[in-house]
């Protein structure tokens, strides 16, 4: 059974902040009419109020129970060998920097290095209020176009990597697991972590036989700790699968699934043209370096607003 998650108290705090700012603006406006304050000060506060209200409207889109949860973000390199592995590593860095800039706690669950450079796959746990709600729109294929540093002729190359974001369930949600349905493997961790991590089989992999879902964890030093984390990750995947089953009858969700198929990119990062474009919302930014350094909030906000009414947003575009 899935339990409903309680609404975060920050909604009430945000409403009070807006109320206080609007009341302060009204007072400043009255002072301005009497010549006691400059119009520029009123305008400055007015713009501040608009920003706060705009942010509140954006936050109101996070209205699903699972939106308040932490999340697991996984990256997998696509076809393209070293190019795609390097691109996956760039995405990993981008999401870590986004999390740190926005005061989320981020930890690496696993990482599989590429044969020459970059990574074949990696998983992050991102914790904090509404981490899943903010990042859920990152699900899909991300496309990079650039002059390749791995090509001696300096040719323009295209690389793909897929991103999957799952809600990380907590004690407010109950997912039943039958131990008989689990198949375990242990192996040595491949990443950094000292002699203990690399010389003992502390990493674990678990397969849920009824669903075929497989997760692995090499974050912790001990096998026992990694088993606990792997179970939590598996429950999160099963919870997400249940949510998808509940929503699959809706046409909107079916359309979204098509968008997330391999080879149908949700966003293109074209470095030599200096633009990053989201193909669902049309949102485009031209400071590619800033985006790759974690400045993703414009894209996250545009997706959440589009997701509320995609038809209206497409007509405006």
Can you walk me through this structure?
With 317 residues, the protein is an alpha+beta fold. The protein is 42% helix and 24% strand. The chain contains ten helices and eleven strands. The strands form two sheets. Strands 2-3-1-5-4-9-10-11 form an eight-stranded mixed beta sheet, with helices on both faces. A hairpin with a 5-residue loop joins strand 2 and strand 3. Helix 1 packs antiparallel against helix 2 and helix 9 packs across helix 10.
**What share of residues are in beta strands?**
15-25%
Figure out the total of helices. 10
Shape by Cα distribution: globular
Q: Mean of residue pLDDT?
A: 81
Rounded to the nearest angstrom, the radius of gyration is 22 Å
What does the oligomeric state look like here?
Answer: single chain
Summarize the helices and strands and which ones pair or pack.
Blueprint: H1 10-33, H2 39-59, E1 70-77, H3 82-101, E2 105-113, E3 119-127, H4 131-135, E4 140-147, E5 156-168, E6 182-187, H5 194-199, E7 203-208, E8 213-217, H6 223-247, H7 251-259, E9 265-270, E10 275-278, E11 284-285, H8 288-292, H9 297-308, H10 310-316
Parallel strand pairs: 4-9
Antiparallel strand pairs: 1-3, 1-5, 2-3, 4-5, 6-7, 7-8, 9-10, 10-11
Helix pairs in contact: 1-2, 9-10
Quick recap:
The chain has 10 helices and 11 strands.
Key features?
single chain; 317 residues; alpha+beta; 10 helices; 11 strands; globular
